[in-house]
Every structure is written in C-alpha cells, then in structure tokens.
Design goal:
mainly alpha; two-stranded antiparallel ribbon
Length: 419
C-alpha cells in the first residue's frame, strides 16, 4: 500500500504540486473560522460573524468556476497568482480595517472569496501530464481526497494556535500570506507553466453543457449536504453528552474514517467503468450515514462516525475520475471547480437544514438529514445512470491523450496539453 504512494510522490514535481496546493488552499479551509473569530474579537455579534462568513463562502462558490474557466483559457500562472494575491489583500483589508465601517468589511470578504484561486481544479488538471499513467492518476486523486481531510483538520487547529500566540488579526494575515506562497510554489513549477487546456468549443455554459457532469454535480450536492448537516448535528449531540471534547472526538473519528478509506481505496487498481463504481461507493456512503440517527452513547457514536466517514474520500476520488471523463474539451479546470462549488453549497445548505431539524426532533433528526441526503445522492446517480454511462469525450482505443503529444499517458485523460 505504502509503496504505491511512495512511488507517486517520488515522481518529479508530484510532491511539490500536492504540498503547494494544500498550503495554497489553507485560507479557503480556514477562512470561515478565522472570520468568525476576528469578528467576535472586534466586538461583532455572532449574527454578523455568521453573515460575513456566509458572504465569504458564497463568494468563493461563485468565483471558483469563473476563475477555473479563466485558467482553461489563459493558463494557470496568469490567473492563479493574481487571484491569490487579491484574495490575500482582501483578508488583509479586513484585518487592518476591522468591521467598522461595515461596508468595507463586506467588500473585503467578498473580494477574498471571489478571488480564491482554483488550486484544487488546477492540480487535478495537472496530474495526467505529471504522472503519465492512468493508475497513478487514480492513486493521486485518492491521495488528494485524503489530503483534504488532513487540511480541514489541521487548518482550524492552526488558526486557533495563531490566535493564542498573537491575535485574530495576525491569524488572518499569516494564513493568507502562507496561502499566497503556496499558490506561488505551484504556478512557478514547470508543469503549471507549461500546461495549456485543450482547444475548446465556445459555449456560454462551458463545462455545464455536459449532461454527465450535471448528473454528477447533482449527486455531489447532496453528499455535501449530508456532510454539512453532520457538522451541526454532532455539535448538538455533543452539548448533551459532554461538550466540546465529545464534538472533537466525533468529528475526529469522521475524519479518521475518511482518511483510512481514502488510503485503502487509492492503494489498489480498480477495473470497470468508474461511473458504475461511483454508484456502489455512494450507496455504501449512504448506508454509513443512516445509523448515525440512532445517536447512541459516546463510544457507539464515535464508532459510527468512523464508519460513516469510511467511504467519503473514495467517493470523491472516484468522482474526480468521472469529472475528467465527462468534462467537455478544454473545460477540465472549470469542471473540477464546479465540483468544489457544488460540494461547498451543498454543505452550506446542510448546515442550514440541520439546525431546524435538531430543534424539532433532537439529535437523531439532525443526523437523519445526513442519511436522507446520502440516499438522495444515490437516487440521483441511479436516475441519471444512462447519461453517466456515456463519457462526454470518448475516443478510439489507443488514441493519445490531449495533454501528451508523445502518447505516454494511457487512454482516458484529456486534462490539457503541454505547450
């Protein structure tokens, strides 16, 4: 298992691109928490903190596919580095000006969110040209999904440490400065500078004109909704079973399950169409979410949380392969960015839906939102299985991938081309 990951990371540029992308995405992983802590430190209410964090999240959701399309048109360095700098400056403005005047605070988080660089989509577009082999790219997608779990666990902890050591404003400044450095590390690399999207057909819908991609996004929306609802339901559960420590244990178990599942999934090669495999994985994910509604004691809840997280990273890793197969020519970065947006919006909706559910039906009702959402995600895939079964960019067996003029990449990838 470890040998496959070690071989991948020894590939030239692979470790640098993965590390740079994770570091560059730290502001996005911690932005909502840093904004809430800063607003409260400035004397703002929880309501104001929540609204500012929501503006940042929605702005990020809007900006990702727009910037992803720009990357496909103009290349990674011309878009990602200026975007990272502008996003960092937006957060710096918030740290310096504070929440008074309030319009300036809203403008700052809006700029920071809209300009968040699409590093996730950019990395996934680069993998085929860097790794050259289909099996390695599939492993990289799994490693990418696992790394996300680590980042979203370590990132909030880093913010709290910076706040404890200095201040909330310092946390905003440091996290975003580090994020710019991460983006810089990616865009000055050889693969990023050389990468060019495949020629694209001019169409205002861009990647969204693919029926298969739309079907996938519909399913991932509900996967995100399930995950967002678990966050709120777990918080409510913890209040009745021991407080913040229990919340940390439950969420850590969820992350550990995703980590273990992602590592195991990426360690082996999978035969057959990824679309069919995705249906099975989402079904297992839904089955893992349903028992959470039992809301047992802390030990049982911890075990169920670990089980529920087991198939999250495999679902995401498999979905990345499906995205690459269905994204129209020349839209791969935009397509991957739509995945980020859809998942994020789904998580936000899940957070909003779980609150009323908990108030009306207690902890089990909050977790039931996750179970039902998982089932709906599965139903979406089953209802659209015909369009998902037909990749949007099929080619004859043996035809070279667009991003590989020498034919070194195995069939199945069209993530770009080298200049």
């Amino acid at each position: 298992m470890a040998a496959g990951y070690a071989e991948l990371l020894r590939t030239r540029h692979a470790a640098r691109l993965l590390t740079g992308t994770l570091v560059g995405r730290l502001p996005n992983a911690t932005g909502h928490i840093a904004i809430v802590l800063f607003t409260r430190a400035e004397g703002g209410s929880y309501s104001l903190a929540g609204v500012l964090a929501a503006v940042y999240g929605l702005a990020t959701a809007v900006g990702q596919p727009l910037l992803g399309r720009a990357v496909d048109l103009y290349g990674q360095p011309r878009v990602m580095l200026p975007a990272a700098v502008l996003s960092g400056l937006g957060m710096a403005l918030l740290a310096v000006v504070g929440i008074d005047p309030l319009p300036a605070a809203y403008a700052a988080v809006l700029v920071a969110g809209v300009c968040t660089p699409p590093l996730e989509g950019g990395l996934r577009a680069l993998w085929p040209s860097v790794l050259k082999r289909e099996d390695r790219v599939h492993t990289a997608y799994a490693l990418d999904a696992v790394a996300q779990e680590v980042m979203f666990t370590v990132g909030p902890l880093l913010v709290t440490l910076l706040v404890a050591a200095w201040s909330e404003a310092a946390a905003l400044l440091v996290i975003n400065a580090v994020g710019v450095l991460g983006a810089l590390s990616v865009v000055v690399s050889g693969p990023s500078r050389a990468w060019r999207s495949a020629p694209r057909e001019a169409h205002w819908l861009g990647a969204l004109r693919s029926p298969g991609l739309l079907a996938l996004l519909g399913s991932l929306f509900f996967v995100g909704l399930a995950l967002g609802s678990i966050t709120v339901a777990a918080l409510a559960y913890a209040e009745g079973h021991g407080g913040d420590t229990v919340y940390g244990v439950v969420m850590a178990a969820l992350g550990f399950g995703a980590l273990a599942g992602g590592i195991a999934y990426g360690a082996r090669q999978w035969a057959g169409p990824p679309e069919r495999r995705l249906v099975a994985l989402v079904a297992l994910l839904a089955l893992g979410y349903l028992p959470l509604a039992l809301a047992p004691g802390v030990a049982g809840m911890t075990a169920l949380s670990a089980l529920s997280g087991l198939f999250l990273a495999p679902v995401l890793a498999c979905a990345f392969v499906v995205v690459d197969r269905h994204a129209p020519r020349g839209t791969v970065t935009e397509a991957f960015s739509w995945v980020v947006t859809t998942f994020g919006v789904g998580a936000a909706v899940g957070t909003a839906a779980a609150g009323p559910a908990v108030e009306r039906g207690g902890d089990p009702a909050g977790f039931a939102v996750a179970g039902v959402s998982g089932l709906v995600a599965l139903l979406v895939l089953l209802a659209t299985r015909r369009v998902l079964a037909v990749p949007g960019r099929t080619r004859a067996v043996g035809q070279a991938a667009e991003n590989d003029r020498n034919g070194a990449v195995e069939p199945g990838f069209r993530a770009g081309r080298q200049a």
